[in-house]
Write a structure and sequence with these properties.
The protein is mainly alpha-helical. The chain folds into two domains: 109 residues, Rna Polymerase Sigma Factor, Chain: A, CATH 1.10.1740; 68 residues, Winged helix-like DNA-binding domain superfamily/Winged helix DNA-binding domain (Arc Repressor Mutant, subunit A, Orthogonal Bundle), CATH 1.10.10.10. The chain contains eight helices and two strands, in the order ααααββαααα. Strands 1-2 form a two-stranded antiparallel sheet. α1 packs across α2, α2 packs across α3 and α3 crosses α4. The longest helix has 23 residues. The chain is globular. About 3% of the residues have low confidence.
């Protein structure tokens, strides 16, 4: 049994949720962890990318990556610190790829437990080898997307390959905005499950 006395009450509560999720596959524990941190993660990412749609997507990605790596978490730090670090690192990768002009990212963020997450973004110039690797990832991604049901495939293509905003997708497909967001969330869940079974996770 790992010692968790050094954690705050909130940190110890989170640790117990992690144990339930990890060892008992308790879906309510996963849901509660997401409920507790979805909003603060979203607002941190919104400050980094200054785009609501991107921040929503990155929030889902952050939780997906954190839950996939839950077995790697140790209570040396609070769960929130670990989660914020995964979210910020994932966002930095996104910023580098998209070459977004990010704001307020040099100041870092402070979690509820008082831990400061430093964020450093270096300019990245993609060399030919990296470009080839990126093309290969896109090819693999397309192969996985082709396995989705037609309605989900179209949504993913418009959102991630054509990079349309949610509002543009809703208008193009003549669907309510809420339906587009809900179905894209579902499509991402399908993709996440499929990609867990490939070696080329992105």
């Amino acid at each position: 049994m790992e010692l968790i006395e050094h954690l705050s009450d909130k940190g110890q509560y989170d640790y117990n949720l992690v144990q339930k999720a990890l060892h008992k596959q308790d879906q309510k524990a996963y849901a509660e962890l997401m409920e507790r941190y979805r909003e603060p993660i979203y607002y941190m990412l919104l400050k980094m990318v200054n785009n609501k749609d991107d921040a929503e997507d990155l929030t889902i990605e952050a939780f997906g990556k954190a839950f996939l790596r839950l077995g790697q978490y140790t209570p040396q730090f609070a769960f929130s610190t670990w989660l914020f670090k995964i979210a910020s690192n994932n966002c930095i990768d996104y910023i580098r790829k998209k070459k977004i002009k990010a704001i307020s990212i040099d100041q870092g963020f402070q979690t509820d437990d008082g831990d400061t997450i430093e964020i450093n973004v270096k300019d990245a110039v993609i060399d030919p080898a990296e470009a080839m690797e990126k093309d290969e990832r896109i090819k693999k991604m397309r192969e996985i997307v082709d396995k989705l049901k037609p309605r989900y495939r179209k949504l993913v293509e418009l959102r991630y390959f054509e990079e349309l905003a949610y509002e543009e997708i809703a208008e193009q497909l003549d669907l309510p905005l809420g339906t587009v967001k809900a179905q894209l969330f579902r499509a991402r869940e399908f993709l996440f499950q499929m990609m867990k079974h490939t070696k080329d996770n992105y």
